[in-house]
Design a protein that fits this description.
114 residues; alpha+beta; 4 strands
């Protein structure tokens, strides 16, 4: 699977006994998958790891894709990122909802200064 992950992606970093821990990629990885910085969430609280290599299979001290991400990558659509951008065929949020107000605020023309 492609060893490149973008900032904000959630991946796995197994601890020494092999238990997978969620980690957030803080900086886009290098082409070979080296993660300059990850935040790992463990029982003792979050900790930052630097220069973490990529591994196809879970290995302590390396990051890897979660099983869900690997399975999704094997489908015809591939492991495409979900997007907050409107997509064709997806209905707009209901009028008056929090989501519709957020969309309206983002698309409203800026008021001119007097």
């Amino acid at each position: 699977m492609n060893p490149q992950a973008t900032a904000g992606r959630i991946v796995h970093v197994p601890n020494d006994d092999g238990t997978p821990r969620a980690a957030i990629v803080n900086v886009d990885t290098d082409a070979d998958g080296l993660a300059e910085e990850l935040t790992v969430f463990a029982k003792g609280g979050p900790r930052v790891m630097r220069n973490v290599p990529y591994a196809e299979e879970p290995v302590a001290g390396c990051w890897s894709w979660m099983p869900y991400q690997k399975a999704k990558a094997e489908t015809a659509e591939g492991n495409q990122s979900e997007s907050a951008e409107p997509r064709p065929g997806v209905p707009e949020p209901p009028q008056g909802s929090v989501a519709s107000k957020a969309v309206a605020a983002e698309t409203a023309p800026e008021a001119e200064e007097a």
